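Lecture notes, part 5. Sequence design as translation. It can be helpful to think of inverse folding as translation between two languages: the language of shapes and the language of residues. The source text, in structure tokens, appears below.
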């Protein structure tokens, strides 16, 4: 499915319906999903059928590191595995980052979960 005609799937807030919600766009694919404040971007993406690269899910391994190109996000842990320079350059760790506004993030290795539930990063 191409990014121009993708049906957007709403994420379900892990904290209930009262959580503030924001819209996240993943580049270069152009996919979008809704993310709740206080819920990690990795989890919100997963609920919308999108897989962001991750391993540790606690902000230390850096598998999920990506570029925040617009918007504001905050990390849910006090010391995420980023250098001061990376933070200044706009790098975030989506496994422990939550949105504070609508976002655009660059995640070239993100992929969608197929309709049958199996991950298919090679699908065209």
């Amino acid at each position: 499915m191409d990014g121009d005609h993708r049906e957007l799937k709403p994420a379900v807030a892990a904290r209930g319906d009262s959580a503030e919600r924001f819209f996240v766009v993943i580049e270069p694919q152009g996919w979008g999903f809704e993310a709740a404040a206080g819920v990690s971007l990795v989890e919100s993406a997963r609920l919308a059928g999108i897989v962001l690269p991750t391993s540790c899910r606690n902000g230390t391994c850096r598998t999920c590191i990506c570029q925040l190109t617009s918007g504001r996000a905050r990390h849910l842990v006090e010391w995420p595995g980023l250098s001061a320079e990376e933070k200044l350059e706009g790098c975030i760790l989506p496994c422990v980052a939550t949105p504070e506004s609508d976002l655009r993030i660059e995640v070239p290795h993100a992929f969608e979960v197929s309709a049958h539930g199996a991950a298919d990063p090679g699908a065209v």
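The translated text above is only one of many valid answers, since several sequences can fold into similar shapes. The chain has one domain: 21-111.
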